[in-house]
Request: fold
Amino acid sequence: MFPFPALNIHFLGYPQTCQSDEKNSEREGLQKNEEKQHFFIQSAAHRVLSQMQSQSVMSSAKPTNGTLFGSRHDVSAAALKKASTKAQQQQSRRRLQPIDAVSAAGKEFRAWDDAKNSKKRTDLKKIMIIGAGPIVIGQVITLSLLSVFVFFIDPPPVRSSGRRVGDDTMMMSFKKFCLCFLFVFGSNFQTTPTKIASVSRHVVFLSSLSHKKGEEREMWVLKNILVFLTLLSYFKLTFSLYSFSKACEFDYSGTQACKALRAEGYDVILINSNPATIMTDPETAARTFITPMTPEYVEKIIAAEKPDAVLPTMGGQTALNLTKALAEAGIFEKYGVELIGAKLPAINKAEDRQLFKDAMTKIGLKTPQSGTAETWEQAKVIAAEIGTLPLIIRPAFTLGGSGGGIAYNMKEFEQITKGGLDASATSQVLIEQSLLGWKEYELEVMRDLADNVVIVCSIENFDPMGVHTGDSITIAPAQTLTDKEYQRLRDASLAIIREIGVECGGSNVQMAVNPAGGELMIIEMNPRVSRSSALASKATGFPIAKMAAKMALGATMDGIPNDITMKTPAAFEPSIDYVVTKIPRFAFEKFPGAEPILTTQMKSVGEAMAMGRTWQESFNKALRSLETGLSGWGLNKNDGFMQNDPELIKERLVVPSPERVVALHEAFMSGMSEDEIIRLTTMDPWFIRQLGDLYQTECWLKSLSSMDDLSVEDWTQVKRRGYSDAQICRAFPGTVEADVRQKRKSMGVVAAMKRVDTCAAEFESDTPYMYSSYDGSCEAKPTNARKILILGGGPNRIGQGIEFDYCCCHAAFALSDAGYETIMLNSNPETVSTDYDTSDRLYFEPLTVEDVLNVCEVERPEGIIVQFGGQTPLSLATKLEAALKANPIQAASGNGVTHILGTPPDSIDAAEDRDRWMDILKELDIRQPAGGVCVDESEALSTAERVGYPVMVRPSYVLGGRAMEVVSTPSQLKRYLSTAVEVDPERPVLVDKYLDQATELDVDALCDSFGNVVIGGIMEHIEQAGVHSGDSACSLPTQTVPESALATIREWTPKLARRLGVVGLLNMQYAVMPDGTPYIIEANPRASRTVPFVSKAIGHPLAKYASLVMAGQSLEEIGFMQEPITKHISVKEAVLPFDKFLGCDTLLGPEMRSTGEVMGIDFDFERAYCKAQIAAGQKLPKSGKVFISVKNSDKEAMVPVAKNLVDMGFEILSTGGTATTLESAGIKVTKVKKIHEGRPNIGDILRDGDLKLMFVTSSGDANDLTDGRELRRTAVGLKVPICTTVAGIKATAGSLKILQEGNLQMQALQDFF
Reply:
């Protein structure tokens, strides 16, 4: 029998509180249980009270005391007592009756009709929504140059009396001067008489203030203007308002907002530079601008479209920063545009550190103590005032945080502070109180214009403070808070949103709690929809972005129906009877040289989320959702790999890294006690005790002789802890996963599908949002309709991101319109596909064979689509097909059995299996680079010798160019085989001839089951072959490829598609040599990351067409029988995260590193490319110095480039051979030293801020491995644009002339078709 206490699957309400620590007294445990029970009744009482009020007290514009929306302590005692009695009665009934019997009485709730205080804005017609731009890592707050500078300037002088000398007027005018200077001079500080006059007015005003108030103030003005201008010259900073980090959760929020506003009858104008999003589909908004997101270009759109209002809170920090700049520059006022959702004062108060700190002080809340110092003496005073160690030192204006650090003692403090003062351009450091080891929480708060406030969700970090919340495992609702502790955080959140002045919409409040004494610190507040909003929305089912958009236009929460129940208003705080765990996904392997250490800067590239009735269940499910080779926590293939190094285990526990969760298991395996683990990690004891229980369960399973020893109760308890069948089979050597499934089902232990209903079953709901558990009855209520199951892409990662989610969404939309019931299965909370209204049914589950089969057995769909979610579902296809054949599932509609739709899994395997692939190409007489499959080093070396160096080497079956490399010598090949991959018969490597100087092409095609094949688009890569397609800019249509090569490609593509039996999408990659000879590189019989870009470029939704084709329609029926030819040019550019991974090189190669993309579209190539570069954050100059240093084979290609640059007025700097080549061509060049040739060298010139642009290609020699790498890294840190391929250099040079002309026009996507 199962030797441990059975899990109590009983949740009293929200927030879920932890059970007492086992070492606490029995009395304390009883007290906490009483608190939980009391809070449940209180929670229920408030819901009942709100229900009573919704029938009688909804007439006032602003709720009085006693409403649900303020602090719970505001409710009158009599009303609460009455409601509590009713709540207790309801709770008693719930204990006795099944869920279906407990339904809310009353008619369906209606938004505008029933709520007298909901007044939809009728004065607004056109609403502009600002999107988030390209996907890059994280969502940290980035400040404009003005915000950062003003934070560090000295305050105005103080009179002897202690009062500031007119500082309000003076500071405001000084800020205006700085902002005006930056804005009017644009991104490149080009002067005009009008601009100079605008700046001069502020200078004159500041001077007059100085003369009136005395010399002291004059010196203050002059000093700070001098510092301001010095900073500009030192850094050559530009006024670009890009957020350096955001993720695809803002596609979810922007799409929800667009849909909500259009449903209410508003015209929506959307600005977003990212084509790989649902929100930038032409049908999502009335006018869609896929354009650069800078003030200069957004002003052009505002002038042309004349929106009535702008909603900035749906696009993350990018949108907020852009809005702030436009507002402060007077653009909204100039064009009569209203700012809705978040007013400028609220944005400033939340974003400006000092203003936020002052606001918190005003309402009696603490923030971490801090101060700025310009000398060591000042630093000592600040340290004494803070009074605790460790301290965090942040130098002002340094690259990548260089010169800063965490000081654990005064000796380190002195060392780091003095180093930081030297490193800082302004000799200033910010010294902050460290909260390392404190517990971190987040509360998602919503407020409407009537001052109704609700807490949507509480979120707790698994890691203590010191790890960015985006890189930490997070749990919702918070597990380790008592009711009193939660109420304290809740009251603080309500006070904060009101004090900051967020009039309506969602906000996120981050807090830290000292586990030693309970001291509360407020970390920050985001006055917008954030990453946590996406998690909170998916965790609770509460559509935050949709509600926020409606509230921005006058709706109040008591007047908006809950989309799930349709009987209660949005004012009801969500209550959940399950636990949600989110675990981040990392990609450090893509960035050699970058330390896999987690800090306060976010580094994760995606995340997976799972739901369970216990934390252990959701935790195990989330781990196997990550797709990193883990089947859960423990019972994995590589368990025990640290057991020979106890010190390594301790190091991995102490230093946060992606492996820390695995190190926790290794620590238990090594015999380390729970108390020791708690001491080393400073994690909450409750979580470590939970992990201890899991480890005991694992040991008990291993102690059994066979699965026959497991009783029904044993199976139930193990599965309730989240263990997968794959984990269980490893506890019994000799068994396979299918054996576990068969045995478990024979015992009657099957997954029960539970509903996410926002109300913990207090009201009847028919939500389409499900998760699995092993607790009680199944709530799915499947229909007998014709159904199709769509498998999503799982967590984002480099090589598999939002582009695949885009395809999954289009499949759901198209098949639903065609009359099918669509079912989505995915584990990624950041996506539109996991919105509960994207498909008819949503299952938030891991993408494993076990979990997919669980859903199939409940829903019994006719077909399963695996080719839209990228490599994740494709990797399941063969095993899933085998399982379905072994145990057929009759379709609920009666139309046959459940099967995989579209391209057969065997055809997918044929395209990826090298031997089968080569046989097919030989059969069809299609040319490919010479090469072979190698299973050991000697075979690889002989193959490389046969085909000739350089060669491309990569593992078989890869995604995103994982571990691909171009090698030029036998020694480089040996190094690759010994360090980059493990090569053996089960893991062969591919060695192919590298096609030097070739142009790479991507082809997306559609194929139906009738043999029709239509090419959707042929894209030319701007970078040469050898650079991963995901990292290369590309153009559609092609620009330089000869027609003869295109004709061959148009012949080969349908021939190969028919041979493979492709039904749906097909992506093929070709390389064309300089002489026009084409070669095929690879074929992917699935959706590719290029589908969203191509669909927008040609005006045809390829993923929708592919879905209908897989469902049986022909391309002729769809009306897509000919390759579209466009008159406009579309350019896609990659967004690379090198600034997040200090130490890695920036050279592009066959391994994909980009995290997102942008798009430029125009009627000529140069303009489209220029738009794409600006959108990607490249600050291209209009004048200045350009550095050119290229390898020998590229030198001649630089002659025409350099000549054009000189003709445009640029000054050329070059080193050694490049300078000689250019001088020989009659081009004026300034020759500079390479880094290893002495000082001053090109590195010094770069750091002095004298370079505006760099063209550098790598020779790969020893000097380049040191000098070149340092130069490229420095350029990235200084935000100096750098091009590392000849094709990229030529395209960039062509764009500079467009910038000089200054007449880029912004056009809506709808105008091109």
User: Anything to note?
Assistant: The first helix runs from residue 26 to 56.
